[in-house]
Amino acid sequence: MNSQNRKMKSIIYLLFLFFLALTLPLLTNAFSLPLEKSKAPIYPNDGPLSDDAGDTFETAMSIEQGGYTGRMPVGDNDDYFMFFVQSGATIYFTLVSGMGRTLDLYLYHPSTIEIVARTDSANKKTIEYETLSEGYWRIRIAKSSGSGVYAFSLSFTDFEEPPNPPLSTELVYFLIIGSIAIFLLASFFVFRYLKKNVKLSIQFGKKEKSEKDEGGEREEGAEPKSTKEKPEHYSPDNSLRPIPPERSVIEEKEPVEFTENLEGHMCMICMDFLRKNEEVVQCPHCLVVFHKDHLEGWIANHHNCPVCKGKLKNKNSNSNEP
User: Fold this and answer.
1) 217-268 pLDDT, tens per residue?
2) Is residue 41 part of a domain?
3) CATH number of 113's domain
4) Which of the residues 57, 255, 284, 304 has an alpha carbon 20 to 30 A from that of 40?
5) From CA 265, how far away is CA 273, in angstroms rounded?
6) What is the number of domains present in the chain?
7) Is 150 left (phi over 0), alpha (psi -120 to 50) or beta?
8) Is residue 76 located within the same domain as residue 123?
């Protein structure tokens, strides 16, 4: 019993570790918060005021991420800047103009289509836009009123290799529930298997104890029942399960009819419990009990005990049969 319990606990413990190893990565992925996209650092990069940006879409000045200053003198109404952005990146652009002047801000797609426009009267304008295609995007700074110096900063998140998309919530929940179901199902079958083995051991123990207790209480003159005769091939340590004898010392015997109430015991052929008033027979070699019709059917085809393989024959059968 203790050995069976230790074995059951060990298997359940291993199943629990397997369940944790399977579900922990899924739980970590399901409940971890996505990292917020961080803007690239902006470095001061004051260029010469005499450098004039292009006045048209085609002549736009190429720039990179950073901070810049520009000048919008009298007679200069537009400054164009261009920069390369990959698909999926987010553009962050901030324009600051001095007091007494108003500048408008525009973002253009590489195909020259206007995407975003900021034309309010604020001195600080910002654009934040996630691109859907890569190429050279343009920023246009247009004079609305006044002239003079302005400053702007450009940054964008640029992923050369986009991260793998996270698992959907539905898929994560499905995998978690499936893992739990597999774990419970495996635990059920292991528990059922071990429970059956423990029950068989208990049955053999009760049977042997009954034989010992009733052996000294046999009535005077009564013939000894075959079920009380302890076979010579029991193990030396008096274990619950009998050991089959060597084939050479087994003689062919007939099953013995068993008349005691064996309700609660199990037929080792059909693995069903024996019930009251059922015809039961016992193997004379190993003392295991069976339904009578089940063992007779077995002997007709195998001529031996299904448990200890001892030679058996049905009553009134011809001993010369193979």
Assistant:
1) 544 454 544 444 444 444 444 444 444 544 434 456 666 666 666 666 788 8
2) no
3) 2.60.120.380
4) 57
5) 5
6) 3
7) beta
8) yes
